[in-house]
Structures are given as structure tokens and as C-alpha cells.
Write a structure and sequence with these properties.
Strand 3 and strand 4 (35-42) form a beta hairpin. With 139 residues, this protein is an all-beta fold. The protein is globular, with a radius of gyration of 15 Å. The longest helix is centred in the last third of the chain and has 4 residues, at 128-131. The protein is built from one helix and 14 strands.
Length: 139
């Protein structure tokens, strides 16, 4: 057993996020593990850029309401205690509502050593019309 030395909280880079986003790395997978786990905190209105994960991603909402957008224009609301999975290669974004902080646990796998794809591919920023699109609670 090993207690891992905590890393300092990091600020989300402007290329990947709109608004103020902070994250704590919980686990950064050393071979043979490829698991990545971050606790991410979004200020009101903050969100990721569009992106996708080679092996998929799981989001577990801890506080606030998470918005998760897909390319078909759907913006899902996920509430504390709910878990959302994004399949490999699905382009999506996630963030906070305009009036509340949001915190989620983000889990994803890095790619295998013989796989030259990046674990996460970052794309363009989310347009205001996309962020403000109709929201749904359906699953």
C-alpha cells in the first residue's frame, strides 16, 4: 500500500476551458494502470472545450448541476450522485450552469503504450448558442 503525495490544485488551461476551472489530480496512472482521475471544479458558466477520449470518459457529479453537451445539440443535466459515461470517440463538452458552481469526478483511461492516439483530443470552444441550447434530464 502507498499513500500518494497530493499534487497542488491546477488551473484549467485557457485552450481547454472557458471560465474558471480548477482540478485536483487524484490518480495519473503509472503502467500498468492507465486510469486517470481528477476532481474538477467549475465556476458558474465555466465549461470545457469540445473534446473526445480515445477510450471514453466517466463523469460523476458531486455538487451543482453538470451540463453535458453532444454534437446533436442535446445538453443533458446531471445532478449530484449521477454518473454519465461518454463512449470512446464521442465529441462532447461539460460544465456548470450559469448560476451555480459544479464539481465532478472525471475518470478516463489513457491509451495503451502501443496506441499512438492521445487519451484526450481537444477541439474548438463551445459556442454560446451550444451552451445555451435546450436542456434535458432524459437519459
Amino acid at each position: 500500500m502507498e499513500f500518494v503525495e497530493p499534487r497542488p490544485t491546477g488551473k484549467g488551461p485557457e485552450d481547454w476551458f472557458d471560465g474558471d476551472v480548477w482540478f485536483d489530480v487524484i490518480h495519473a496512472g503509472q503502467e500498468p494502470s492507465r486510469l486517470r482521475a481528477n476532481m474538477v471544479r467549475f465556476a458558474p458558466g465555466a465549461r470545457t472545450a469540445w473534446h473526445h477520449h480515445a477510450v471514453g470518459q466517466t463523469l460523476h457529479v458531486v455538487a451543482g448541476i453538470a451540463l453535458i453537451g453532444t454534437r446533436d445539440g442535446t445538453v443533458y443535466e446531471a445532478h449530484p450522485g449521477e454518473t454519465v459515461t461518454c463512449p470512446p470517440g464521442e465529441e462532447h463538452w461539460h460544465g456548470a450552469t450559469e448560476d451555480r458552481f459544479m464539481q465532478h469526478l472525471a475518470l478516463w483511461d489513457g491509451t495503451a503504450p502501443d496506441d499512438d492516439r492521445p487519451g484526450t483530443t481537444w477541439l474548438e470552444k463551445v459556442a454560446e448558442e451550444q451552451y445555451n441550447g435546450p436542456r434535458t434530464r432524459s437519459r
